[in-house]
Amino acid sequence: MTTKDFLTLSHAELRSLLERGHPIDPSALDDSEYRGVSLGLPAPIVALTWLTFRKTFHRDPRTGALRGWNVRMQQAGLDGPREPMRDAKGKPRCFGFYEVGDGRAYDMPVAARHGLVIDYNRAHENPRFDPIRLGRDPLVSLDEGRVERLLGWTYLDLGLARVNTPSYFLLEREGPLSYIP
């Protein structure tokens, strides 16, 4: 399937792919970055937010934890240049920091516990009352034993309840990590 093919999939098809996805060796993600493509959201929401983004993975040398962050990108479509938006100091605009955990440790509303989970609540860089802290992203490989194409989905963890969202995303490996905030 091409990236454009993923944009045409229904929520049921994306969920099926997520549930049938393959486990990921966390060490295979160390110090890498991926092009992210939003899937499953209505066009007006994508127009207000983004179609593409960058998701990073970095092995913290102090703690050994697999961590990461999102990078806001210039919106140039799927085939346009991949340029990060920059802050006033010229640094890439990073947001949504996270730690990556084992899916088996999470009570999630889909059958994707065999994958990893991006957990925005475990990162100390996110503001204390930022709603992003409620987000959890189960993540699986689309190709067994490989990490070039990953599929994720976002749900909200409200403590006593888990809330589904329509937000899926495709991650396509771009290469080694190019910036650490």
TrEMBL record:
Top-level division of the source organism's lineage: Bacteria
Name used for this protein in its record: DUF4334 domain-containing protein
Protein's organism: Polyangium sorediatum
